[in-house]
Amino acid sequence: MTIYRIDEHVKGKVMQSILLLNAKGGSGKTTIATNLASLYAQAGFKTAVLDYDPQGSSHYWGSLRENCGRPPVHLIDASHKRTGITRAFQLKTPPDTERVIIDTPAGISRDLLREAVDRADMIIIPVTPSPIDIHATAGFVRELMLTLKTRARNIPIGIIANRTRQKMPIYQPLEKFLNGLNIPFLASLSDSDHYIDASACGIGIHEMDAKLTAQERSEWMPLIQWVDENLPHATSTENLPLRAAAN
Ligand SMILES: Nc1ncnc2c1ncn2[C@@H]1O[C@H](COP(=O)(O)OP(=O)(O)O)[C@@H](O)[C@H]1O
Ligand SMILES: [Mg+2]
Question: Does 243 reside within a domain?
Answer without folding.
Answer: no
